[in-house]
Design brief:
By secondary structure, the protein is an alpha/beta fold. It is 30% helix and 29% strand. It contains five helices and eight strands. The strands form two sheets. It has a five-stranded parallel β-sheet with strand order 3-2-4-5-6. It has a three-stranded antiparallel β-sheet with strand order 1-8-7. Strand 4, helix 4 and strand 5 form a beta-alpha-beta unit. Helix 1 packs across helix 2.
């Protein structure tokens, strides 16, 4: 892989998350009944950071949960013969809540669809919204993000790499040529 460009550095990631948190507050006219659910792996720290920003602005701690969609993926046969199920249940209440799914990159929409399936298996939310750091296009399902950090049209020969301090000791978004 060859590095093509750095799309976001650490400061740009921070600014983007601040903007998304403001958009969440505005669109929902506050934060009543909102819960954030991060898709493991990098969606979880992003959801926690959004919750921290929302708490700074609104003075309210928004619950943050996580979902591991391994069980729900429609491409399990390509991942492993015996998929590892990390959790079937979401660790926060979703019934009658405004659920905001948080992920790092929106691509085909299949991961988001799987997360929606997992959420609905745990209760009926009032609504489900989607927040992503990067939307790279190439949707295969009719899924659209409500909150987008950056739209990056890509070719299928490119890879978006999101690095977060909590996992990678660095905050950045890079694009590579395959």
């Amino acid at each position: 892989m060859k590095l093509k460009t750095v799309l976001l550095d650490d400061k740009a990631v921070q600014r983007t998350l601040i903007r998304i948190s403001h958009e969440i507050i505005e669109k929902n006219k506050g934060v009543q009944d909102i819960v954030l659910i991060g898709i493991k792996r990098r969606g979880v720290p992003l959801a926690k950071r959004l919750a921290l920003q929302i708490a700074k602005f609104e003075g309210v701690e928004v619950p943050v949960g996580s979902v591991d969609i391994t069980l729900y993926r429609d491409d399990l046969s390509t991942l492993s013969d015996m998929p590892k199920i990390n959790n079937k249940n979401i660790d926060i209440e979703v019934k009658n809540k405004k659920v905001i799914i948080v992920d790092d990159v929106l691509y085909t929409g299949r991961t988001t669809r799987a997360a929606i399936d997992a959420i609905l298996d745990n209760g009926r939310p009032m609504s489900i919204q989607l927040a992503v750091l990067i939307d790279r296009g190439h949707r295969e399902l009719p899924i659209r993000a409500d909150y987008v950090g950056k739209n990056i049209p890509t070719s299928k020969n490119e890879l978006i790499s999101v690095e977060l301090t909590e996992i990678d000791n660095n905050d950045s978004v890079k694009i590579y040529e395959l």
